[in-house]
Amino acid sequence: MTLHKPICSARQSGAAALALVLGLALGGCATMPQNRLLDSVHQPVVDRTQYQIDLASGPAGLTGEDRGRLEGWFAALGLRYGDEIAIDDPLANPTTRAEVRHIVDHYGLLISDATPVTAGYVNAGMVRVIVTRSTASVPHCPDLQTTSEINWKNATSSNYGCAVNSNMAAMVANPNDFLSGRHAQTLTTVDTADKAIWNHQSASMSGAAGTVKQNGTN
Fold it and tell me: In 10 A of CB 117, how many CB atoms?
């Protein structure tokens, strides 16, 4: 007695093998790079955090206790370059503003003319000091989703730009420059670019004043 393998069974096996091959191929496409441009999809993102403190203020400005609170608050925040400081004073007391400016001057910062919107209401006789801090980072980096060695689209890696832009976000002193840039204080950008060279070349040499012989005893 001779047994013959059904034809339908062979066809089913072939269809299953074909489905497996197609599934593997489609799975490889999912891990293949897609960005065909040289502009990285990973760009720095600026986040802003707002801090505020309410202090008592009178005709003579801040009280001694609240002046100490403000100084301790600034120290606890680690006030630094790039922080924006604003004052919300319903009475617009110039003495209070001058006192806050005097404390801020120790950090080499300025007080902004614009006052951001904050939660709650500032009563008369109180003053609100607001610090807005910006931070820059590159989300979703490193991005190692590209695992396929096949690159039919001639695209850049999914991790392309992560290292450069993450370092840039960490090095920029004021993250707000990512949003609006920085305008040169001179007529041309060449003057700004050459400023460091000009300062180096115009500086007097350390030995220009000669040497001084000092007599001492052994």
Answer: 7
